[in-house]
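User: Fold this; tokens only.

Assistant: Input:
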Amino acid sequence: MFTGSDEVAADVIKEAQAHSWSVPNDFAVIGFDNQPIAELLDPQITTINQSTTSIGFQAMDIMLSLIEKKSKRAERYYIAIGVNRKTIYLN
């Protein structure tokens, strides 16, 4: 299950445990935003880290390049965003 935040993922995990379901054995949970709660639970939440600082620096570099005419168009940049912890199995 993909949730919109780590807080919602935490609630899903707690509710699953209350019903004797095992995460990730019975189903996987992925949070979003890599909040501190993701590391506090057992199991720790697999989450998506937005890397807003890296995104901001890269956006500024691209903008300055375009303004200074060093580049005619923006290049593509890829930033690793996944944080694998314990709520999914990867094969």
